[in-house]
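Structure tokens please, single chain.
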Amino acid sequence: MNDDFRVAELALKGYKCSHILVQIGLDAQGKTNPELLRAMSGLANGMSDGLTCGALTGGCCLIGLYAGMDGQGRDEHGRLPLMLKEYTEWFREECGRSYGGSDCAQIMQDQPQLRVERCPALILQAVKKAREILEANGFELDGVSGAEQG
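Here you go.
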């Protein structure tokens, strides 16, 4: 399923930025993880207080889903900090240029109706950038080959 359609489908189901980014990764791995999705609610809507956008934190979680340690013997990929740095710098630059900052409140400019206009496009950009970073570091989003390399 293409990301454009999947982002729209998940948004219509009520998923928020952080949920969508991680669900895209779970979909690509053929996995479900309701507990992880529930945990992503803590990041949604700028941690429910207009703080750091869920597309930023959710994108970091998506990268971590592939490159992070698992507590069961797989260590963190050596390039994880660099991948996260690249993603966060891109996000802050993109949102700073377009919206004046990367916090949810800055992106929404205290106008909740902008969520419908801005969030889907921003989420899709975030998915594409996270995919690009992961693929450049040897990860296949429809598998975990780079993650297995550690």
